Amino acid sequence: LYFNGLGVRCAEAALGVELFVLGNFESESERSYIGLPILRLLSDRSGASGPLLVGVGAYAECSSEVDSSNCVESSIGGTVGALLREVSARCPWGRPIAFGTMLRLRMTPSLRIDSSPAEQHTKHHYESERLASLHESNGFFGPLSSSSESDLVVAATCDNVSSFTFDVDVVSKSGKANERIYLEGRGEVEMNACIQSCFAYTSILRSGDDFITVRRLRVLSTNMKMSDNTEDILSSLDAEALAVVLFHKLSQSSMQDGLEETQHVAQDWLLSTLLCTYRSAEAYYEKIKAEAEHGISRSRKTFYSTERLMGQKGSELTDRDVLLARGHERLSSLPLLVFSLLQCDALRPSGDSFRPTIDSRAAAAANMARMSPGALARCIAPRLELWLEHATRGGNIRSGKGEPLVESLNMNMEALRLAFFDLRDDAQQESEYSPILLLDSPRQVVICDCSFVVDRIDGRASTRRTIADSDHITKVGPVLHRAIQETLRSYRVPPPVLYCLGDNNTGCMNEAILHLQDALVEDSYTSLSRENFDQWCTEVASLLHSEVAGK
To answer: Which of 55, 85, 86 is nearest to 70 (CA)?
Structure first.
C-alpha cells in the first residue's frame, strides 16, 4: 500500500517516476528478488513508462561480431545499450509528453464505468487478491491513478502511445443502453448511448529561446453504436484494440487467480467467442434463406456460407478451419492472438528452460500494459515480410515493387520456407539475389538475407548462386529503407536494427536466427500441455465441434 499511495501522490504532483533496476539476470545463482510486483505500483500510479531491468554482467556486453563500435545500436533489450536508449526516449524532450493529466469520462444515464471487483475463478490468499485490486483504478486499467470522484482519473505523465482500458456496465431499469426519456417541450425522445471524454493536461512549448508551459483541454464526444445483431458486432472488431483489452484482463487474472488458471480462462473465453460466432453465422444464414423465400432482397454485409458454416458445398475450408473462424474477415487471427498472449513472458507459466523471475514477469507485464495496440500486436506476434530491393557493393540497384513481395507471413518456419521457395522458383522473380526478410518486433528489427536463414536452419550450405564480390548485397533499397524508418518511429523507444547483409557474418546470422526462432510463436510449445499452435488449435476445434454437434 505504501508504494501505491506514494505513486498516487506523485501523480497528483505531476511527477512521473521511472524505475531502472540494474542486476545480473544471466546467472541463476546470483539472482535476487527485488520486489518489482510491488515497486511497479510507484511507476504505474504515476503514469510513467514502466520498470526496466538492465543487465550489468556479461549479458550486458555488446557482441563484438555484430558491431562493437556502436553499443547503443547493436545491443538488445535488457542491456546497458537498451538503458541508454530508454533514458533518452523517456526524457520530456525525447517524445511528445503531457504532464499533470486529468481524464474525466461522462456517459448517458443508462451507462457507467464498471468498477466492481473482478470475478475470482480460484480461491487464493488474501494478499494476491489485494495486490490484484491495487492494479485497478476506479474501473480503469493502465498507467494512471484513481481519485475521489468515480469518473475521474489522474496521471503525472502521459505520451501519445499510452493505453488503458475500462468496462462499461448497463444500469438502466430496462437493461438497454438506449432509453426513451421525457424532455419538456419535446415529449419522449430516444437518448442514444454516448461517451464524452475531457482530457486536461500541461504541455511544454518553445517560445523564442525559452520554454513555456501551457494548460490545455481536449473534449471528445462519441456516439456508441448499439446492435442486437452479433454479426454487426463481429464485423466491427479491431483485433489490435482487442489485444490490448485481453492483455489487461488476462494480466489481472494472472495476479488474482495464478498463471495456470489464466491459461484456462483465456481458452474458455476463446471457445465462447468462437461458438458465438458460429451460432451467429447459423442464425444469419437462416435469416437470409427466409428472406429469399419471401422475395425480400435487402442490402446486407458480405456473407459466404461456405466460409462460415460446416458441410457447405464448394467450401475450400475444412470443418476445423470453419470452427476456428478462418473464414471470418475480422476473426481469422483470433486463435493466434490468444495463443500469442498466453505465450508472452508476462503470462506463460514456467516450464523446462523457461523460468523467469517474478521481477522479470512484473517488468514485462508493466511495459506491455503501456504499449499502443499496434506495438503490442507486434510484441506478441512480430511482423514478418519478404522484400526484393537491394543495393550492391558494385552500385547496382535491384528494386522490387516498392512493397513487400509477401506480407503477413504465418508465424512458423514452414510458412517462411514455402514462401521463400515459391519466390525463388517464380520465373517473374528469378534473380541471383534472394529476398530480404524483415522481422519487426519491439525488441529488435532484423533485416537479413532470407536464403541464409532458411539454409542455416536446414543445415545446408547457402543455395544462393555464386556472385562477384562487387555484387554482394550491402544495404537495402530506398523504399525498404523508408519502411524501416517508419517502423522505428511507430515505437515509443525505437528498437535496434540488426542488418545481416553482404558477406556472411557468423555472429550476426546466429543472432538473427535466434531472434527469428523466438519470434515464430506458432512453433513454440505451451508450458502446460506441451502443444504447439497447430495442436492447440486442433484441440480447440475438437471441443467446438462437440458443442456444435450436440446443439
So the answer is: 85
How does pLDDT run across 448-458, given as a tens digit for each residue?
888 888 877 76
The three-state secondary structure class of 205 is strand
Asked whether 172 and 179 are in contact (CB, 8 A), the reply is: yes
pLDDT value of residue 233: 84
**Distance between CA atoms of residues 59 and 26, nearest Å:** 6
Q: At a CB cut-off of 8 Å and minimum separation 6, what does 509 contact?
A: 448, 452, 453, 456, 500
- Backbone dihedral region for residue 30 (phi beyond 0: left; psi -120 to 50: alpha; all else: beta): alpha
C-alpha angle 344-349-353 in degrees, rounded to nearest 5:
90
Look at residue 122 and tell me whether its pLDDT is greater than 80.
Answer: no
State the Cα–Cα distance between residues 545 and 504, nearest whole angstrom. Answer: 49
Distance CA 410, CA 406 (A): 11
The secondary structure of 406-438, three-state, reads: EECCCCCHHHHHHHHHHHHHCHHHCCCCCCEEE
pLDDT-derived band of residue 393, with 50, 70 and 90 as boundaries?
A: very low
Of 56 and 273, the one with more pLDDT: 273
Number of neighbours of residue 212 by Cβ within 10 angstroms: 10
Q: Return the SS3 of 449.
A: strand
pLDDT tens per residue across span 26-59: 545 555 678 888 888 898 888 888 888 877 654 4
Contacts of 224 (CB under 8 A, 6+ apart): 111, 177, 192, 193, 194, 195
**How many Å apart are CA 454 and CA 457, to the nearest integer?**
5
Contact (Cβ atoms closer than 8 angstroms) between residue 245 and residue 337: no
SS3 531: coil
On the 0-12 / 13-18 / 19+ scale of CB atoms within 10 A, 384 is buried
Instruction: List 141's β-bridge partners, or say none.
Output: 165
Give the whole-angstrom CA distance, residue 276 versus residue 270. 10
When pLDDT is cut at 50, 70 and 90, the band that residue 131 belongs to is low
Distance of alpha carbon 336 from alpha carbon 125, whole angstroms = 32
Left if phi > 0, otherwise alpha if psi is -120 to 50, otherwise beta: which for 505? Answer: beta
pLDDT in tens, 291-310: 888 777 665 667 888 899 99
What is this structure's pTM? 0.84
C-alpha cell at 116: 466492481
Quickly count: other Cβ atoms within 10 Å of residue 316's Cβ: 8
Nearest-5° Cα angle at 76, 473 to 143: 130
For 284, half-sphere exposure in the C-beta direction (CA atoms, 13 angstrom radius) is 22
As given in the structure block, the three cell numbers for residue 525 are 510449445
C-alpha cell recorded at residue 42: 510507484
- Report residue 259 as a C-alpha cell: 498463471
